[in-house]
UniProtKB/TrEMBL annotation:
Pfam assignment, any one: GST_N_2
Segments passing through the bilayer: none
Taxonomic lineage from the root: Bacteria, Pseudomonadati, Pseudomonadota, Alphaproteobacteria, Hyphomicrobiales
Residue ranges occupied by any GST C-terminal domain in the UniProt entry: 88-215
InterPro entries in UniProt: Glutathione-S-Trfase_C-like, Glutathione-S-Trfase_C_sf, Glutathione_S-Trfase, Glutathione_S-Trfase_N, GST_C, Thioredoxin-like_sf
Domain GST N-terminal residues, every copy: 1-81
Organism: Rhizobium leguminosarum bv. trifolii (strain WSM2304)
Protein name: Glutathione S-transferase domain
UniProt-listed Gene3D superfamilies: 1.20.1050.10, Glutaredoxin (3.40.30.10)
Length: 227
């Protein structure tokens, strides 16, 4: 399988899931400006939307949209039930509910904070996100969203919250979410994924990660992630 990705983008979520499940995956970088892939293909011919992630299966079929991809990955192996309970188990629907919440209420609004075209309403967007995060902080059932088990929704949430320093959102005001980031960042397979994407920790707690180019543009310095 091939995972089309950008470093530190939402494609990091299925990347983490693949490593947690022990799935063999080939990472293919996509250039944001040219839409050319690191293996010389036109990414728009693979995913006409132009954004990542996309998962190409061994038979050439392509699956897009991160929440759908991580569910497919979890369902593709027997051990995947640890990250996404089986059909008929209410816990599965709980994880799916979180996936929908993250994609609609956190991922898309946070992306707008990177876009200068929306700068006039960034404060209002930030206020909406903060309201959602406060609610989420109060609903944590344990170290992870649904309790003790690390699920596909946790991988997705980790990636979105990892953008917080770059969007002017301070997670320190929500101790549960800040602790969540620390728990996920400490997972060996998560650190393998971070290292593979050449991401560096740049905060004192070591729970936020970014590519070197972003670190340089923000005047920050980081240290290499080690598994």
């Amino acid at each position: 399988m091939k995972l089309y990705m950008h470093a530190a983008a939402c494609s990091l979520s299925p990347h983490i899931v693949c490593r947690e499940l022990g799935l063999d995956i080939e990472l293919v970088q996509v250039d944001r400006q040219t839409h050319r892939t690191s293996d010389g293909k036109d990414y728009l011919a693979i995913n006409g939307n132009g954004y990542v992630p996309a998962l190409m299966l061994d038979d050439g079929k392509v699956l897009t949209e991160g929440p759908a991809i991580v569910q497919f990955l979890a369902d593709s192996v027997s051990q995947g039930s640890a990250m996404l309970p089986e059909v008929g188990n209410l816990k599965r629907n709980e994880v799916q509910s979180y996936l929908n919440f993250i994609t609609a209420e956190l991922h898309k609004p946070m992306v707008l904070l990177f876009n200068p075209l929306y700068s006039s309403v960034h404060e209002q967007i930030r206020a909406l996100i903060s309201k959602r995060l406060a609610r989420l902080d109060g609903r944590l059932a344990g170290p992870y969203l649904t309790g003790e088990a690390f699920t596909v929704a946790d991988a997705y949430l980790f990636v979105c919250l990892n953008w917080s320093p770059w969007t002017g959102i301070d997670l320190q005001q929500w101790p549960g979410l800040h602790g969540f980031m620390a728990h996920v960042a400490a997972r060996p397979k998560v650190r393998e994924a971070l290292q593979a994407e050449e991401l560096e920790a740049f905060d004192a707690d070591g729970v936020y990660f970014a590519p070197q180019a972003y670190l340089a543009s923000a005047g920050r310095t980081g240290s290499p992630v080690r598994p």
